[in-house]
Design a protein that fits this description.
It is built from 30 helices and 19 strands. It is α/β, with parallel strands linked by helices. Strand 6, helix 12 and strand 7 form a beta-alpha-beta unit.
Length: 664
């Protein structure tokens, strides 16, 4: 006899959906609104997640089935957390809600309906590494001749192809905007992109962008299917709409064409800071124009920050002209004014931040409640060294710790062979940067110079060049020329100038071809030169770099427990959506924040001001903003006066405390 087992889902006791108790007036209006297009402008700290959660729960209590709701978010984790709260509020399983990222939802649709656009259901999704491997094959198949000039690495090609797709601009335009130094390679890059698409189709494979590409094709090229799919969703909600790109906005609006435009998009135009990734600010700014009859809700009650911090923030963002205007209104009692602190230079800036953090800890504010934010990762270099020296544990949210980055290690390898020509590891790192040189050839080169009286001198010999294949020899000759120049610089120049001399070699060309975000990495190297300013000899600098690594290693060994409190260091972009009791914002001077490069772009100043808005609205209780007054010139032989950021100068001085640093 076959036994039958009955499965019972865990019983849920729903929380009461008390809208009067749980929501403020503006949130309640957004949650309970009727049909049609809706735009919810949710200011920082205004309860955006709560509003979306209650909206989904409200729809379900009004008879909308979970499977008739689509909730697009920018992380799957955000969708899970929201739907988990819906579960708790309604006592209903919200798992049938179509919740997740655009890519996750697109994948779900394509698994069932991909055949319509030529995809078999068992297609493979290529992750970023898979995509780069396939691009390597495409470059080889295209027979690109790279002997005379470096061809961009697969990661850079991948970025160009993705940016081109997500902004709906030709490859040539993407190259011109993101990597103009590769403009001579544009025809070959276009050829590689075509091969890449062909190979994916032949392999029944898609990358992340293809999940959106084919989903959009279903909606725009197969209208019957689009009508069925769009009609399935009685309500469509999109979180963080200010971060959507052109493709995502088209997908959303094509779907909404078939459900009576029952579409609610939620976001904060003042936090639109991802143009460099392809996000389109006009998506949220022009939503009412593209969707006639849009009802706009503004969530302005801020539950995070003190009135003083919000007065400061409101005064700054008010200078942007292209925006949905709003005013954050504090729901907390009064606190301290934001502190604006001029410091002599980046060294005094680092010393102040470290000292104040220790004082805060003595006042009962843990390291995990403090964050240091900056516009560019390079701006944290001097501070990281100071924190290590003072044994203040920290974690970096904006990338790898400064002195452990690959491009910093590349430059240090040049310095090491100048100081100690018998450093095999440094030589191997340098040789492996050369085209046509792999591990076997690097080992042969080391054997050739290892026993010489002066390995550096031997490396400069014609015999070493002759060991390499003809295709590699032009690059080796340039390498030898660069080494001669660096050797001459070593004789009578400061370590700072030697690092700047590395920037005059072929290394920047290698860096641009090898790494993404090449300009930011070059800025990192210039920051390494600033760090080197305090050291009179190359050897003392290298010894300090080793010591910093050793202290960091000891800290990691001692602080292996996950319970160890750590200060957070983060770029503003990585800090979006987070909050801390105390926030420090570094390098608020012209050229650094706002970024000089960003100011050259259309709309650049307003986006930079939005980045500043995001930085200041991370602070709950205390906000410190520092700006160095002087910096060294590019060559280190002059001092430059630095102007405070325009974002500080335009704020009324009564809205902050102007402090000063005293040194004994």
């Amino acid at each position: 006899m076959t036994r039958t087992f009955t499965l019972h889902t865990s019983s849920r006791t729903p929380l009461s959906l008390d809208l009067e108790r749980d929501l403020n007036e503006a949130q309640r209006a957004a949650v309970t609104c009727g049909d049609g297009p809706k735009l919810v402008i949710a200011g920082a700290g205004s309860g955006k997640t709560r509003t979306i959660t209650y909206r989904v729960a409200y729809l379900m209590t009004r008879g909308v089935l979970p499977s008739q709701i689509l909730l697009a978010t920018f992380t799957n984790k955000a969708a899970r957390e929201m739907l988990g709260r819906v579960d708790a509020l309604t006592g209903t399983n919200a798992a049938k809600v179509w919740g997740g990222t655009f890519h996750a939802i697109g994948n779900r649709i394509l698994r069932s309906h991909g055949r319509i656009v030529g995809l078999a259901p068992n297609y493979t999704i290529l992750d970023e590494e898979d995509g780069r491997d396939l691009l390597k094959v495409c470059v080889t198949d295209a027979k690109v001749q790279v002997e005379e000039k470096r061809f961009p690495a697969p990661a850079i090609i991948q970025d160009l192809i993705s940016f081109s797709f997500n902004t709906q601009r030709p490859i040539a335009a993407a190259v011109e905007e993101r990597t103009p130094h590769f403009s001579d390679w544009t025809p070959q890059l276009q050829q590689v992109a075509v091969r890449y698409d062909a190979k994916k189709r032949a392999a029944n494979a898609v990358d992340y962008d293809d999940l959106l590409r084919f989903w959009l094709a279903l909606l725009e090229e197969h209208r019957e299917f689009a009508a069925r799919l769009g009609g399935q969703f009685r309500s469509i909600l999109v979180d963080e709409y200010q971060d959507t790109n052109t493709i995502q906005a088209r997908i959303v609006e094509r779907l909404a064409e078939h459900n009576g435009r029952n579409l609610m998009v939620v976001g904060d135009d003042a936090q639109s800071i991802y143009a460099f990734r392809g996000s389109n600010y006009d998506n949220i700014l022009q939503f009412p124009e593209r969707n006639p009859g849009t009802e706009v809700f503004k969530l302005e009650a801020n539950y995070r920050s003190t009135p003083e911090i919000l007065d400061f923030t409101n005064a700054s963002i008010a200078h942007n002209q292209r925006q949905h205007r709003k005013m954050l209104i504090a729901q907390r009692s009064r606190g301290a004014l934001p502190v604006v602190l001029p410091v002599n230079d980046v060294y005094q800036e680092a010393a102040f931040v470290a000292e104040r953090i220790l004082q805060l800890r003595d006042e009962g504010i843990g390291l995990e409640d403090v964050a240091v934010l900056y516009r560019a990762h390079a701006h944290s270099s001097i501070l990281q060294a100071e924190l290590i020296k003072r044994n203040i544990p920290y974690e970096v949210r904006s990338g790898v710790r400064f002195f452990e980055q690959a491009h910093i290690k590349d430059v240090v390898a040049y310095l090491k062979v100048l100081d100690n020509p018998r450093d095999e590891i440094a030589w191997r790192r340098l040789w492996l940067m050369l085209p046509r040189v792999g591990n076997v050839t690097a080992a042969r080169l080391w054997e050739a110079i290892a026993h010489a009286k002066d390995p550096l001198e031997e490396t400069l010999s014609a015999s070493v060049c002759a060991m390499l294949p003809p295709a590699a020899q032009p690059h080796v000759k340039r390498f030898q020329k660069d080494l001669r120049a660096l050797r001459a610089a070593r004789e009578d120049q400061h370590p700072m100038k030697i690092i700047h001399a590395v920037l005059e070699t072929a290394y920047p060309e290698y860096l641009r071809a090898k790494y993404e975000a090449s300009q930011a990495r070059l800025d990192d190297i210039r920051q390494l030169a600033v760090f080197a300013r305090s050291y009179r000899t190359l050897r003392s600098l290298l010894s300090e770099l080793v010591l910093l690594g050793e202290l960091y290693g000891q800290e990691m060994a001692a602080g292996a427990s996950p319970d160890t409190e750590r200060l957070v260091l983060s770029s503003v972009h990585q800090a979006k959506g987070l909050e801390w009791r105390v926030v420090f914002v570094l390098r608020m001077c012209e050229g650094d924040f706002p970024s000089e490069i960003a100011l050259r772009e259309p709309g650049g100043e307003e986006e930079e001001r939005r980045i500043f808005y995001v930085a200041t609205t991370r602070a709950k209780d205390e906000l410190y903003i520092t700006h160095p007054l002087i910096d060294m010139g590019l060559r280190g032989d002059s001092q430059l006066l630095l102007a405070p950021s325009r974002f500080l100068r335009e704020i009324r001085f009564t809205l902050y405390e102007q402090a000063q640093v005293e040194e004994p």
